[in-house]
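Lab channel / #folding
Pinned by the channel admin:
"Please post every new chain as: sequence first, then the structure tokens as a reply. Keep commentary short and put observations after the output so the thread stays searchable."

First post following the new format, from NK:
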Amino acid sequence: MSSMAAPLEHLIEQLEKWPTIGHKSAQRLAFYLLGIPQEEAAAFASAFSEAREKIHECAVCCNLTDRETCPICDDPRRDATTICVVADPRDVMAIERTREYNGLYHVLHGNLSPMDGVTPEQLRIKELLHRIAEQPIAEVIMATNPTVDGEVTATYLSKLLEPFKIKVTRLAYGIPVGGDLEYADEVTLRHSLEGRNPL
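Reply from TO:
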């Protein structure tokens, strides 16, 4: 018989389901949540409930929004001829933080992963193809992560886009600013050389 109250055990079990949260982290979070004032706990529960109720996918780019279309798709100042394809809504936030990109996005909500059973039908690929068929798109930028699944996804999409006769590019990646060449692996160095830009 457990020495812990059943509701506390249940809370810990639910927290353990969160990404990167192990049993000890779940315990710490559970005790933290139980220790905050009642009004803070109520505000947290209310914010979570509101987000679950109101947040959905943008009808155009599949990013998360609380409106029919997201603010980026609604912004007439954005370059509507360029679409940056990302795997996750968090990737949109990361690129937006750079303030360097002024086009539109398309969020796939994952990467192709044969090992994990993630197929094209489970991603927002049909929606991307529909957009490209309906809008005058000049360039599609593949901004999936430089992982095996990200590379497979980018390659698969580039093949699908060939009939559209539009420019398809891949984000350059490689040596991070402040990194040392001696610590970089061969694949990273190769991609750094391939993605080099003129000075």
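NK: The chain has a mean pLDDT of 89.
TO: also worth noting, Helices lie at 6-16, 23-35, 38-54, 71-74, 89-98, 125-134, 148-161, 186-194.
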